[in-house]
Amino acid sequence: MANKEGFNHNNLDIVFKLHKTQRYIDIMNKVEDDLDPIYTYTSIMKELEDFDHVLINRKKSSETGSVLKDDSKYHQMVLECNTLLGDIEKEIGNVHNFIRDECRLKFPELESQVHDPFLYARAVKYTGNHVYFPSIKRRLPEEVFQKVFQACDLVLTLDTSKNKLLEYVTRRMVYVAPNLCGVVGREVAAKLMVAAGSLESLADMPASDVQLLGTENNISLLSSHYSNKFGVAYIEETDVFKTARRDMKMLVSRHLAEKSVIAARIDSARDDPSGSYGRTCLQEFRNKNIDLF
């Protein structure tokens, strides 16, 4: 955390330097290239061909116990993104603490009303260094406010990077965790893995804890990117949960959490690269429990 007394309003990059590190720059460049909105027909077809190649060779890979090069590449990139996501969240927290400490006298009520660092930074930028708002008690010295304004821009930049990383992880989940995707879908699979910290961590979690991922204590990293209702678990965002009868939703949630843990273990060990377990177990659950829906 940035020390206010030792900060002296010097160059923010000296204190908050994650966004200047080569690791951050390299990973974000790769992610942005992959998420480039100018996605030509050729590039789309190339990705489909790559995916078909992975599916065709996964059975052979499973028989030999080897890990496909494509799978390994995507898996490593997702792991790097996941680690960077955690670092970005910490950095956002540190920058937010600096902004909040400097603005506490200027915006005495803002801290209790706006808890999200992204929204707090936007509010500070919107109000500026003026005193015509009723809740603003005083102006900040111009030099201080310029640093606060710069820090707000940094929070917004880091938040944008976080959202891009989350989108990339969601896109690549089918390569990294095909069975988990088969059970809960790509987007929920990405949320579960990021909230747990890694695929391996998810595989080691009790099913009862997986059921709670996404509730109040787990939403900070994902809340500004995904439209997750406060206090609603990610498992509850799956199609199978939404279509379940109201009185059966808890049973469905427990089943999905249990199967998600098993699928994560299989994906971690690369035991079923085809993802057939995930797809099959979900379909079997639907077929055997038609009365639940």
Question: In percent, how much strand structure appears in the residues?
Answer: under 5%
By CATH, the architecture of the largest domain is named: Orthogonal Bundle
Q: Spans with pLDDT under 50 lasting ≥5 residues?
A: 1-8, 58-70, 217-230
Task: Round the mean pLDDT to the nearest integer and report it.
Answer: 79
User: Main β-sheet: number of strands, strand sense, barrel status?
Assistant: none
Radius of gyration, CA atoms, in whole angstroms: 22 Å
Task: Name the shape in a single word.
Answer: elongated
Tell me the span between the first and last alpha carbons.
49 Å
Structural class, please?
Answer: mainly alpha
How many strand units? 0
* Helical residue percent band: 55-70%
One letter per element, helices H and strands E, the order comes to HHHHHHHHHHHHHHH
Q: How many domain units? A: 2
CATH topology of the largest domain, which one? Helix Hairpins
Classified by CATH, the class of the largest domain is Mainly Alpha
Number of helix segments? 15
Describe the overall structure:
- This protein is an all-alpha fold and 293 residues long.
- The protein folds into two domains: 1-176, Orthogonal Bundle (Helix Hairpins); 178-293, Nop domain (Serum Albumin, Chain A, Domain 1), CATH 1.10.246.90.
- Helix content is 67%, strand content 0%.
- The protein contains 15 helices and no strands.
- Helix 5 (69-103) packs antiparallel against helix 8 (142-176), helix 7 packs antiparallel against helix 8 and helix 9 crosses helix 10 (186-196).
- The longest helix is centred in the first third of the chain and has 35 residues, at 69-103.
- The radius of gyration is 22 Å and the shape is elongated.
- The termini are far apart.
- Residues 1-8, 58-70 and 217-230 have low confidence and may be disordered.
